[in-house]
Amino acid sequence: MDSKEFLDALNLVAKEKGIDKEVVKEGVNWYLRVYIDKDGGVNIDDCEAVSRALEVKLDEKDPIEQAYILEVSSPGIDRPLKKDADFVKYQGEIIDVKLYKAQDGSKQYQGRLLGLEDGVLSIEEENGNVVKFEQKDIASVRLAVIF
Asked: Measured between alpha carbons, how far is 140 from 48 in angstroms, rounded to an integer?
C-alpha cells in the first residue's frame, strides 16, 4: 500500500466510523488532528488506543510529506457541526452560528437548531425569531456552551 492508498483508506475508515480529521499548519508546526466520538463519550483511554494504532500505520506508510504532530481527541463540548448527520443529531440544541459576512447587521447568532434543509440552516433565537442562513454563507456552526 502506497501513501495515496493509505490516505484513501484512512478517509474511508474515517467516513465509516464518523471520525473527523484535519491537517493544519499553526506557526511553524503541522498537525494531524483526529477527532473521535462515540455514544457515551470519549475518554483518555479511547484517545490513547486510536493514537497508538494510527502511529503504527502512519510510521509504516509515512503518507504525509512534512513533519507533523498527531493529536487525537474528542470534538469537545463546543463541537463543530459539519455533516448533515450532525445537524440531525443535534436538532433542538442551542448552537452558535458564525457567518462570513453580516446578515441583518450581525455575523454571529445563537439559537435552537431547527434543522438544515436544502442548504438552508434554520435556528430559533431566544426571543422566538426564526432566522435562516444559506449554508454557503456560514463560516462555522458549533454547539453552544452555556453555563
From this structure: 28
Highest average pLDDT, of 10-14, 49-53, 81-85, 93-97, comes from 93-97
Report d(CA 94, CA 143) in Å as an integer.
Answer: 6
Encoded amino acid at 86, one letter: D
E strands, 7-144, in order: 20-26, 29-35, 69-73, 94-103, 106-117, 120-124, 130-134, 138-143
Q: Are 146 and 94 in contact (CB under 8 A)?
A: yes
Alpha carbon distance 97, 144 (integer Å): 9
Coil, strand, or helix at residue 17?
A: helix
The β-bridge relationship of strands 29-35 and 20-26 is antiparallel
CB 116 within 8 A of CB 87: yes
**Three cell numbers, residue 70:** 498527531
Threshold 0.90, pTM exceeds? no
Dihedral sign for Cα 54, 59, 61, 65, please: positive
Helix (H, G, I), strand (E, B) or coil at 54: helix
pLDDT tens string 58-67: 777 777 777 8
Taken as a whole, the chain contains a residue count of: 147
